[in-house]
Structures are given as structure tokens and as C-alpha cells.
């Protein structure tokens, strides 16, 4: 098998993949309407459910698209006609959810919360108490822009107590942070193959309660291509995706899941944490400061403030690292200069130690003072 030059991606997905996953895409041409391919997809869907311990009550519905397609699908498909959505908004991905709801002209309450702290549960409860027509509560699990981890179990519990269901965007936590949909009160979650499972881009999935998907059959149909029930029903009755699936990406995902289960849920999460510990250690050695306190971080993303040094230039340091095989990523926080280092993908702590050597060299090369300085 061909080995490809290894790149260390420290951006928040797509992530570094193994050669075995890359090579799994090279298969004989196949028509995805063949039974053989249907079997691959149904096995894949079962495995995707088992990653979050869903069991028989949950289904994984596959879509061809990037992760945002799942935000769109869950929001537009799961709201009944006389209901409103509640979005807990504390980062760029929950803001995206609000934009989707606006684009569909759907009724929703946007509960704005600070981006650097866990949301105020009593504020969420208050909205639920004052509005008896909330169909679902929506929250991002891991706000990838800042690295903030939101309390899904608690928010899911509140949603359920008030008769709503709970949708959470787990795109950047699924298959990394252990999730148990029953324990964590999750009715719908979602992810994309290029993140947690360390596969390729182009395949995304919604994992959710079958009874609620069945119930949504009679909800207003706001999109044709991005409708959850339609895709679910088509797959259940024909064993195929409604429209052309990303064939080679699915072969890669199949291999990625073999590797996921070989590594194991706990071991994999341990590895991601080990990678983040190495990221944090390097920051501390250089004096780099983060946006968020470590006790509210996911353990998967660190958003670092730009040093206040006239010689600091993110693009130059980015290019220096990139030319040496390491990709770093700009932040997503408006007006505040940050960049991100992420612990996703098929990497380990030694890759991070190698990265920091290069990063430090880059700082020295461009005359940035070490330890780096901040004016306050
Ligand atoms: C990556 C990500 C998405 C999907 O983004 P795409 O660019 O559409 O792949 C959605 N939500 C979160 C939290 C993410 O990290």
C-alpha cells in the first residue's frame, strides 16, 4: 500500500488520517445501488449509533455533505407547525443554527449566553417555563471556535422536563468525548466523517430517536434535499440513500470505524487528552495565553490569544509551520486575534512536541520575543 507524506493537522477538522483510511478509498468502481454497497451503509449506520450507545431506539441517517448539512436538517425537519425552537447561543456554531432558522423563516428564541463560560441553566429553564410551545432545545456540545464544552446532560434534562426534545451539535466531540445518548439526555446528535472518526470529508450523519423521526413525518416539509424523515424512510425501505452517496468516503469511513473500535472509546479519548496536555504544556513554556479558562475547555481545542509583539504575524508563523508539515488555524472570535490548536485526528503527543519545536523556531526566525508578551 502506498504511504502518503504525513501532515499534522492542528485545525479543527478535517483531521490527520491514517494511511489505511486514505487507501481504503481506492476500491473497484461500484454502483452504489448494488446490495453489496447497501450492506456497507447499513453496517456503518449501526456502528455510528453504537458509538453513542444508542441501541435499537436510535438510527443513524447518512447524508452527503459537510457537517453543516446536519445542522440544517435537524433544525428544519424536527419542528412541528405550532412550535418554536430554542437555541442556546454561545459561539459561532450555535450562531450558525440561528442563521439557518432565520433562512427558513422559522419561529425561534435565541438565548444569548457569554462565549467563554458554560451557559446559565436557570436562564434556559426560565425560557422553558415562560414558553409552553418550545418543540426542541438546540445547543452545540463543543463550540469549536473557542473550545468551550457545553453541559448537554443538564440542558437535555431541562428540555425533557418541559416536554421538549433536545438536539445537540456534536460534530466536534462525537467519537472523541464519550457520549451516551441515554445518560446524556440526547434525542438527536450529529457529526461528520472528517472529524471524530478520522475519515474523509463529504459524509455526515444525524443520529436520533426513531420514534421522533417517525413523528416528524407530518411536520411541515421545509426542504426537499435536507429532510430527515425522507432520507430515513428511503433508507429503511430500500437500503439506499435517496441520492448519490459519497461512495469512496463511505469506504474510508468503514475503515475508520474498524480503527475506532480497535482503539476503543476510552483509549481514544485518553489519547486526545494526552495530545491536549502536550498542547497546553507548550503554551505554558512559551507564555502563550488562551481565551478560555482550562476548566471550561473541551480538551479538544485551545484558542490562543495573539501575542502583543510587533513582530508577531499569524500568517507568517502559519506559513513557517505549514512548510514544515504542521497546519495551524485562525480563530473564529470576532475582533479578538486568536488562533487555534486542536487535538483531533490520528496524532499523538510526540507530534505536538515536534510541532512546538517548529513553532518556537518560527518565533525566533521572525524575532518574536520568548516568552511571548501581552499588554495585560
Ligand atoms: C466542523 C463543525 C461543523 C460543520 O462544519 P462544516 O464546515 O460544514 O463541515 C458543525 N458544527 C461544529 C460544532 C463543528 O465543529
Topology record:
Blueprint (H helix, E strand, L loop, with lengths): L7 E2 L9 H5 L11 H17 L6 E7 L3 H10 L6 E6 L2 H12 L4 E5 L8 H10 L3 E7 L1 E2 L4 E2 L2 H10 L3 E5 L18 E5 L10 E7 H6 L12 H11 L8 H17 L1 H22 L14 E5 L8 H9 L3 E2 L1 E2 L7 E5 L6 H17 L11
Parallel strand pairs: 1-12, 3-4, 3-5, 5-8
Antiparallel strand pairs: 2-10, 6-7, 9-10, 11-14, 13-14
Helix pairs in contact: 2-9, 3-4, 5-6, 10-12, 11-12
Which keywords apply here?
376 residues; alpha/beta; Aspartate Aminotransferase, domain 2; Aspartate Aminotransferase, domain 1; 2 domains; 4-stranded parallel sheet; 12 helices; 14 strands; 16% strand; globular; binds pyridoxal-5'-phosphate
What features would you describe in this structure?
- The protein is of the alpha/beta class and 376 residues long.
- It has 2 domains: 20-262, 3-Layer(aba) Sandwich (Aspartate Aminotransferase, domain 2); 265-365, Aspartate Aminotransferase, domain 1.
- 39% of the residues lie in helices and 16% in strands.
- The chain contains 12 helices and 14 strands.
- It has helices spanning 19-23, 35-51, 68-77, 92-103, 121-130, 152-161, 210-215, 228-238, 247-263, 265-286, 314-322, 349-365; strands at residues 8-9, 58-64, 84-89, 108-112, 134-140, 142-143, 148-149, 165-169, 188-192, 203-209, 301-305, 326-327, 329-330, 338-342.
- The strands form 5 sheets. A 4-stranded parallel sheet has the order 4-3-5-8, with helices on both faces. Strands 2-10-9 form a 3-stranded antiparallel sheet, with helices on both faces. It has a 3-stranded antiparallel sheet with strand order 11-14-13, with helices on one face.
- Helix 3 packs across helix 4 and helix 5 runs parallel beside helix 6.
- The N and C termini lie far apart (52 Å).
- Pyridoxal-5'-phosphate binds at residues 12-13, 66-68, 93, 140, 144, 169, 171-172, 192.
Amino acid at each position: 500500500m502506498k504511504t502518503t507524506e504525513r501532515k499534522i493537522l492542528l485545525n479543527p477538522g478535517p483531521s490527520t488520517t491514517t494511511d489505511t483510511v486514505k487507501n481504503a478509498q481506492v476500491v473497484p468502481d461500484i454502483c452504489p445501488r448494488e446490495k453489496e454497497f447497501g450492506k456497507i451503509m447499513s453496517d456503518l449506520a449501526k456502528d455510528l449509533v453504537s458509538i453513542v450507545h444508542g441501541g435499537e431506539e436510535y438510527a443513524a441517517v447518512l447524508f452527503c455533505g459537510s457537517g453543516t448539512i446536519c445542522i440544517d436538517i435537524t433544525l428544519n425537519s424536527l419542528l412541528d407547525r405550532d412550535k418554536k425552537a430554542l437555541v442556546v447561543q454561545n459561539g459561532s456554531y450555535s450562531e450558525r443554527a440561528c442563521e439557518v432558522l432565520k433562512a427558513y423563516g422559522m419561529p425561534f428564541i435565541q438565548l444569548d449566553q457569554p462565549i467563554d463560560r458554560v451557559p446559565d441553566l436557570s436562564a434556559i429553564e426560565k425560557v422553558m417555563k415562560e414558553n409552553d410551545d418550545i418543540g426542541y432545545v438546540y445547543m452545540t456540545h463543543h463550540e469549536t471556535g473557542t473550545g468551550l464544552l457545553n453541559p448537554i446532560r443538564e440542558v437535555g434534562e431541562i428540555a425533557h422536563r418541559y416536554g421538549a426534545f433536545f438536539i445537540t451539535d456534536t460534530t466536534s466531540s462525537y467519537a472523541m468525548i464519550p457520549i451516551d445518548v441515554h445518560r446524556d439526555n440526547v434525542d438527536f446528535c450529529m457529526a461528520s466523517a472528517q472529524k471524530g472518526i478520522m475519515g474523509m470529508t463529504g459524509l455526515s450523519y444525524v443520529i436520533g430517536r426513531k420514534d421522533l423521526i417517525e413523528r416528524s413525518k407530518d411536520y411541515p416539509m421545509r426542504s426537499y434535499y435536507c429532510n430527515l424523515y425522507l432520507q430515513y424512510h428511503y433508507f429503511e425501505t430500500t437500503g439506499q440513500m435517496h441520492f448519490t452517496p459519497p461512495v469512496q468516503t463511505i469506504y474510508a469511513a468503514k475503515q475508520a470505524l474498524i480503527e475506532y473500535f480497535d482503539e476503543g472509546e476510552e483509549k481514544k479519548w485518553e489519547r486526545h487528552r494526552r495530545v491536549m496536555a502536550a498542547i497546553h504544556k507548550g503554551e505554558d513554556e512559551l507564555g502563550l495565553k488562551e481565551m478560555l479558562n482550562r476548566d471550561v475547555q473541551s480538551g479538544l481545542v485551545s484558542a490562543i490569544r495573539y501575542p502583543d509583539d510587533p513582530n508577531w504575524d499569524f500568517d507568517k508563523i502559519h506559513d513557517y509551520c505549514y512548510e514544515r508539515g504542521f497546519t495551524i488555524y485562525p480563530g473564529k472570535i470576532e475582533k479578538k486575534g486568536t488562533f487555534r490548536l486542536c487535538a483531533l485526528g490520528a496524532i499523538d503527543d510526540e507530534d505536538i512536541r515536534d510541532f512546538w519545536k517548529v513553532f518556537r523556531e518560527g518565533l525566533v526566525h521572525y524575532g518574536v520575543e520568548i516568552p511571548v508578551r501581552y499588554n495585560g
